[in-house]
Structure formats: structure tokens, C-alpha cells
Amino acid sequence: MQAPDFTHLRQNFPLLNQRNYLGTHSLGPLPQAAFSDLEAYAQSLSMGRRALPLWLERYEEMFHLIETLLNAPTGSIALAPSATAVQATIAATIQPTANRDRIVISSLDFPSCRYLWTSQALRGFEIVEVAAADGMQIDAADIVAKIDDRVAIVAVSLVSYLNSARLDIQPIIAAAHAAGAIVVLDAYQAIGTIPIDVTALDADIVVGGTHKWLCGGMGLAFAYVRPSLAERLEPVYPGWFAHLQPTAFAETFVPATGARRFQQGTPSIEPIYTSRAGLKFALDVGVEQIHQRNTELTTYLINCADRNGIPVHTPRSHEQRGGSICLGVDRAEILVQELAGLGIDVDTRSNLGIRVSPHPCNTEKDCQQLIESVVKLAHRRQSVKVG
Predict the structure, then answer these.
(1) What span, in angstroms and rounded, lies between the C-alpha atoms of 387 and 376?
(2) φ, ψ for residue 128, nearest 5 deg
(3) Helix (H, G, I), strand (E, B) or coil at 201
């Protein structure tokens, strides 16, 4: 496949032409086509119920796009308003028993997911948390060591939201399956920048969403559920969109086949419109190509940071990191504000410094400008102290 011309493709992302935007891990830049889709949605609102067929058409298209992106079988995707919501729906289907009552999580998981899974202790589960030994990365072997025949669920993140550390997930999936446990993989910080084939991964449940690396609207998440598993799990909190025939308005609930049985009420239509263009971009360009370009830019950032004595708090091996780089700087929150004043957008997490996430349509010049600005602001701060 011919390498995409990301310099040319940059013109499709208005934000990248207005700012030095390096915050894709937080909110991906919307493609220009997404604004056209948003306008189409706004126009549809004036149609009242006549818009329903249009909305349902977009709704069905969303399933197809996500299935294609993940190489997921037809009918294996469920939509939800957030990653937490879809995981809660799955969690409710699994009850603790005398012989299987443990849930394994990690210290690098996103807080919302951690809140959800740790709260399952109220239902009788024992929560086993695996900590990052160095505060930065978790060894798969440390998680595997906690998996035994009492574990019901292993709920971990493929890429950490804190510093983009990437988990070696295959040994964990293998160990969980050998012990009879289910793996719920939060891939929100990976999908769209790391190629994921759920069939090849042999995954049970893979959770993602549209507003980060898929450069879509907020309020739309999804989960792949292995078809054989979906048929075994009984929905506890279903809604009418989880019914086998939603528009039949039946008196009793008959679950849909596959993952759709885990959906609930009427979906939000706006993010279905605003998320289509980003998904199409990922499919048209290819996530493998996006990943390769992101690797080039993050490696460039690391090299620039090294030359300027800026600590890097993200694994250096591209196989052990996601799409972001965490730079160890002082007074990170203030620095983020100062950079924003210069037209450079990044953010900060915890005490690890600033998080930097180049979109594939960013350039080495964008990365260089960031590093130079960080150095200049640090020198200016030192000069003020000395003065």
C-alpha cells in the first residue's frame, strides 16, 4: 500500500491548521466532513419524526463502520453513551459465586473504569489490583500471576491514559481463558492509532469510543462482545433498543442476537453523525499507516526531549507505548496554560508532566515547536527566579 500523503490530508482537519494541536489523546481534531455531517443532523431536526428513517440509516451505518475497523463479525458490536456505561452493562451480567468471585484490575486503568470495577465489591466480588512496580508500566506477568480459577473478570486497559504505557495483552488473554475468566479490555486510548483485530486478538470484550483517536464526537462508545459469549450473558438492564424487534414494542423483553442485546434506550443521534467522518478517515487511510506515522512523530519527540534534557515518562519502545508521550516538566499545569497562549495545545496528568499526542497529520515541525517552547518557557522561569 502506498503511504498516505499526511501533509495533503492535513487540510481536512481545520483545527490542525488553526493551532499546533497535540492533544488527540484527549479530544481528537474533527475532520471537516464531520462539520458537514453535523449540519445535516441540524437540518434533520426540523423534520420531526420524518427524520427517523435518516437517523436509523446512520445508526446502522455506525455498526458497519466499527465492525470493519475492528474486523469484528456482523452483530458483535453494541453502542453506548460511554465506555463506563457499556462496561457496567457487561458487569451486571456476571454474578460472583463461591468459587469464582474475583476481578483483576490495574493501577494504570482510567479512573472511571476503576470506580466501576472496584464498586463491584458491593456485589460480593473481591477486587485484586495490580500496581505498576515503577509507577509507569505494568508487566503482563504480574497480572498473569494474579489469575487463577477464582477470577471471573480481568478488566484492564490496553494503553494507559496516564502515560501511554501499552500492556502486552496476549499472555493475559491466554491465562484468563485457561482459568475460565473473561477479559474486558479497555482500548479507548488505542483504537484508531493502534491496529486492533478482535478476531485475531481472541478477545472477549473490547471497549472503545469515538472522541479520541477516531476524531469523532463525544457521547458515543462501543463494545465488541465475542458472539459465543454474548449468547451466554443475559442482559440485566436492557432497553427497547436491545429487543430482538425494537419497533414491535412488545410486552415482554426478547433479547436481540449478538452484542445488541446489551444496548439500552434510545441512542443519542448527534454523535452518530459527528463520528462518521473520523471513522471513515481511519478506514480510508488505514490504522496501520496511522500507527506508523504516529510512531515516527513520537520517536521524534523522544529524541528532541533527550537532546534538551527533558525526562520522558513513557516507555521508549514503540511496541510498549500507545500514541502519546509524557514529558516530565515542572509546574506542568501552568506550562499547559502558557503553551496554549502560544497556540500549542497539550494537557497534563498527575505528576508525570505533560501529555503530547501527535495526530498523523501533525508534522515534525509541530513537535519541534513544542519542545523549543517548553525549553524557552523553562529558561524564562529560571531567569525570573534568578532576577
Answers:
(1) 16
(2) -110, 115
(3) helix
- Long-range contacts, 334-340 (Cβ 8 Å, 24+): 335/374, 335/377, 338/377, 339/370, 339/373, 339/374, 339/377
Report the pLDDT averaged over residues 217-243: 96
Residue among 17, 4, 55, 14 nearest 34 (CA): 14
Closest CA to 18 of 345, 324, 258, 274: 345
Q: How far apart are CA 160 and CA 190, in angstroms?
A: 9
Cα gap 201→170, rounded to integer Å: 7
Specify the pLDDT at position 1: 58
Alpha carbon distance 321, 28 (integer Å): 18
Beta bridge partners of 206: 185, 224
| pLDDT of 203 | 87
C-alpha span between 205 and 72 (Å, rounded):
11
Over the stretch 136-146, which tens digit does the pLDDT of each residue have?
A: 899 999 999 99
Q: Cα 161–164–170 angle (5° rounding)? A: 100
Residue 166's pLDDT is what?
97
DSSP of 272-318: HHHTHHHHHHHHHH-HHHHHHHHHHHHHHHHHHHHHTT--B-S-SSG
User: Domains along the chain?
Assistant: 6-22+286-386 (3.90.1150.10), 34-282 (3.40.640.10)
**Residues 37, 24: Cα–Cα separation, whole Å:** 20
Name beta bridge partners: 154: 104, 183
pTM passes above 0.90: yes
Residue in 100, 103, 99 with CA at minimum distance from that of residue 90 = 103
Instruction: Tell the burial category of 1 from Cβ atoms under 10 Å away from its Cβ (0-12, 13-18, 19+).
Output: exposed
* pLDDT digits 0-9 by tens, 193-225: 999 999 999 989 999 999 999 999 999 999 999
